[in-house]
Every structure is written in C-alpha cells, then in structure tokens.
Amino acid sequence: xxxxxxxxxxxxxxxxxxxxxxxxxxxxxxxxxxxxxxxxxxxxxxxxxxxxxxxxxxxxxxxxxxxxxxxxxxxxxxxxxxxxxxxxxxxxxxxxxxxxxxxxxxxxxxxxxxxxxxxxxxxxxxxxxxxxxxxxxxxxxxxxxxxxxxxxxxxxxxxxxxxxxxxxxxxxxxxxxxxxxxxxxxxxxxxxxxxxxxxxxxxxxxxxxxxxxxxxxxxxxxxxxxxxxxxxxxxxxxxxxxxxxxxxxxxxxxxxxxxxxxxxxxxxxxxxxxxxxxxxxxxxxxxxxxxxxxxxxxxxxxxxxxxxxxxxxx
Length: 314
Known about the structure:
By secondary structure, this protein is an alpha/beta fold. The strands form two sheets. It has an eight-stranded mixed sheet with strand order 4-3-2-9-8-5-7-6, with helices on both faces. The protein has a two-stranded antiparallel sheet with strand order 1-10. It is built from 13 helices and ten strands.
C-alpha cells in the first residue's frame, strides 16, 4: 500500500540557482533540494534517494490509506490545516484566538496539529472569532485516496515528464487527463474550445476524471493546468488523490513550452509573459491547496520524481 505523507503541505526549494530551459534536461544531474513542512525548519532531502536518512518523512500517524484509524488521523490533520489557514487569514495569533474562543493556547496548537479531540461545540467556539462557518471547517473529504497521485500546475510545469517517471518508480499507471478528454469528445482540445466552449470542456474533463478513477487505485494523473479553477472537479480530485503542485516561475513555464518547439504561447501575443504572470497569480491560491508543492526551476524530472516518491511509503 502506498500513501503520501504527511498530510501537511511541503515546499521544495532549489539550492542550486541554475535554471532549466526545458522540463526534461537530459544532461544535468538533480539539483539538491530542501523539503520543509509549513512553519518548520528545513529538513535536507537525502540525495541517496527515498527512504534514506532522517529527512525521509514518509512514515508517521498522518499517513493515508492504511485503514480507518489512519484515515481518521488524516481528516484531523486536514481540519487542523483549515483552522490554521483561517486563523492566519484573520490575522490572529494562537494566543489571541485562544483568548477569544475561551480555550487554552495548547488546545489551539493541538487542534492545528490535528491532535486535539475536537467537538462540534469547540469548533463553533473557534469558528466564531475566525469569521468562518462550521461548514467551511468540516466540509472534509470522506473518500480514501488509495494510491492515486495527481500532478497539478500550469502548462510547462513538467507534469507529463515527471508523471511518467513517477509512475514507473511507483509501478503505477500513468494517465494524461487531457488525452482522455480528447478521446471522449472525439476532438482536439482546441476544437472542443472553438466549437463547444469552456463549459463543454469542463464537462468532458469531469467525466474523463471519473472514468480514470474507476480504473483502479494505483494511478499517477497529469491534469490540465486549468482544472483547479473548476471547484467541483478540483474538490473531487483532492478528495480521492494525493495532489502535487509542480511550481515554476512564469519565465520558466514559457521557456519550457517554447523549448518543446511549440511557438503558440508567443504567436500573436506580445504580452504573453505578462498574461502568464496574471494567470499564475489568479491560480496560485488554488494550486496551494495541494498536499505537496515542489519548486521545479533548475531541477531535473528525475529529481522531482524522487522527491515525490520520498514522501510515499510502501
């Protein structure tokens, strides 16, 4: 059984300042990475690979997919993350939230860490000063994620390249979701948009996702860059897959697509880079909901695949 752990988000920061010009540099070795959980000191990723050394965080109570107890622990961790994000959005310290909710600082800290024995009444006490509803905090996915991993990010992030490597490493099936969309529609993506519009694409995308999910638990899915903007489809994906955001600077995204011999991003678009920055700025809050975030600038696909696999346990 494979599981992505822990449930808290991670960000991978490139130590090397080198940048790559395509998502699949064949001649360069993996740049060293640091993986750090939110709010913690960076932990070095052991360069020898997954499962080696103290930096391997793939074991612990927050692992998903090992049974009811583990799933319950995962739900508490997700609830704790929502509490923390709501507190930070409200601009409150742990101490101030504890004072307003009439609970101890320790209780707030444990709740945000997914370790508190929360009740509905206690959640209501916490939600009120945060200015959020109980529904916002408690609308948690009940479905188990199994062994599915979904890669998200803008076009040119390297989802296909990294996804194929990861699937081989995990002995899982790789699926390019947009290819399934085209197969279902009997049209290319461009034709779907031109002839039927965005809503038709969204419908095919959701149906294609359900089709893929029905094929089994061992999957690595490369999603379309805009999937995160469709609330229903993205919520479904997050509920049943371990999500990984492959991040890059807008300049990197554009350079990689052009490096693949595709001139379309710049053709007739003098503001292409500026538009890409705007798109990324709009989507970043959605991408940030992923379980794992990896900065890809200057990092080979093999290193990225290894970094993801290092968070997966057998």
